[in-house]
Amino acid sequence: MPAQILDGREIARRLQEEIKKEVTRLQRELQVTPSLAVILVGDDPASAIYVRNKARACQEIGVKSDQYLLPADVPEETILRLIDKLNGDQSVHGILVQLPLPPHIEERKVLEAVLPSKDVDGFHPANLGGLLIGNPLFVASTPAGILELLDQAGVMIEGKHAVVVGWSVIVGKPTAFLLLQRRATVTVCQIWTQDLAFHTRQADILVVAAGKPKLITAPMVKEGAVVIDVGINRFEGRLVGDVDFAPVAEKASFITPVPGGVGPVTVAMLLRNTLEACKRACIA
Ligand code: NAD
Fold first, then answer.
1. pTM
2. Does ligand 1 have an atom closer than 6 angstroms to the CB of 144?
3. N vs C: which end of the chain shows fewer Cβ within 10 Å?
C-alpha cells in the first residue's frame, strides 16, 4: 500500500496558528512582541530565499523580524560587533545567523558569539551540549521539526530502529541525539559508511540528510518504514530531496515530500523557539 504523505505545509500551518495565539496573548497581557534578528552575509540566492521565507512567516504570526544584510566581504569583526549589540538589546529575543557564511569568516566563532539564551537556531555549543545531556535551552529547528513530524504522524519512536543518513552538526547529529533521547536504537551513517543499503534496510524510521538526489532508492528501504527526507537539491530543473520519492512511497508507511515536508515545519520550529525565548526573557 502506498505511503501516507506527511504534509509539512499543513502541519506547519496548524503549528503557526497555535504560536500566533500565544504571540497575541503575550502582546495583550505583557505588551511584549517576540522579536527575531536575522543576519544574512553575502548574496547566496538559496540563503536569501530562506531568509525571506522566515521573515514572511514571522510577519504572518505577529513576530517582529529585523534583517541585517551584510556584504560578502564584510570583516568578521563587524559581524561579531553586531551580534554583541543584539545580545545586549533586550527588545531582541532571538538571533539567527543564516548559514553558510563566506569562507573568510570562522563560522564556529560567529555562532559561539550568540548568547545561548537568544540562540533560537540551537547551534551554540551550550545548546548542542545541552542536547547531549537531554536538556538544551533550544533544539535546532530542522531536527526539532523532524521529531514534530514523527509525533504528528503518531509514529512510535521508543524501541524502534532509527537510521540517520548524514552527521552534520545542524541536522544529522542533533536528530540522532533527539531520537536516542526518545529511546530509539540509532544508527548514524555518513559518506564513509560501507554498504549504506545494509543499514538503511534495517530502519523502521529513516531520516536522510545528505544533500544527494536519489541517494535512497526503493530497494534500500524496508517495507513499512517511516521515511523523512530532509535533503533539498536542485535536480533537472526542480527541487527534490535525497529520496527517490515515487518508488520509495510505494514501500514506506509514511513519507515526507520535497518541497512541502521538513522545510515548512523547520520554519515553524524557529518561530516556536523565538516565542519561547521571548517568554523566558519576560520571566527573567
Ligand atoms: P552537509 O553537507 O553538512 O552534510 C551532509 C552529510 O551527508 C554529511 O555528514 C555526509 O557525510 C553525508 N553524506 C553525503 N553523501 C553521502 C553518501 N553518499 N552516503 C552517506 N552519507 C552521505 O549537509 P546538511 O547541512 O546536513 O544538509 C543536508 C541536506 O539537508 C541538504 O540537502 C540541505 O539543503 C538539506 N537541509 C534541509 C533543511 C530543511 O529545512 N528542510 C535544513 C537544513 C538542511
1. 0.97
2. no
3. C
| Rounded Cα distance, 228 and 207, in Å | 5
Q: Which domains does the chain have, with CATH numbers?
A: 31-115 (3.40.50.10860), 141-263 (3.40.50.720)
**Which residues touch 75 (CB under 8 Å, ≥6 apart)?**
none
Q: Residue with C-alpha cell 533560537?
A: 120
Spatial neighbors of 168 by CB under 8 A, at least 6 apart, are: 209
CA of 166 to the centre of ligand 1 (A): 5
Three-state secondary structure string covering 104-121: CCCHHHHHHHCCHHHCCC
Helix/strand number for the chain, H first, E second: 10, 11
204-237 tens-digit pLDDT: 999 999 999 999 999 999 999 999 999 999 999 9
